[in-house]
Amino acid sequence: MKKDIAVLIKYRLNQAKESLEEARALLKESMSFRSVMNRLYYAMFYAVLALFQFRGLAASKHSGVISLFDLEFVKSGIFNREMSWAIHRAFELRQKGDYVELYEITKGDVEKCYLDILEYIKKMNLCL
Fold first, then answer.
1. What is the mean pLDDT of the chain?
2. Which residues are CB-neighbours of 46 under 8 A, at least 6 positions away?
3. CATH code of the domain in which 34 resides
4. Count of CB atoms situated within 10 Å of the CB of 107
């Protein structure tokens, strides 16, 4: 693997880790579930971008990243459908929490997404 790609992978994995740590801190301080969901989604997103770097893939929009993840990693059987569902759901909740007026992210939403991101990171590390 080229050194510059390894650096980018490490950078994206670090972003994922930082986002997860931010989510934990927000949750511990009983901050808004909307903010926690935002950080959890970005932890997943950055982990997927690390995987893309490893494979030489890229997409310019969040929806493109998710679609490409489904095509390259779910459809091929590398990741199961639950991983696809998890990132789609996290993206949807993050979008609603950030942009839909009066939409409330619940504790259950956050708890499920938190478990999903732990599974994502575990599986991403196995693939890299």
1. 91
2. 12, 13, 15, 16, 19
3. 1.20.120.330
4. 10
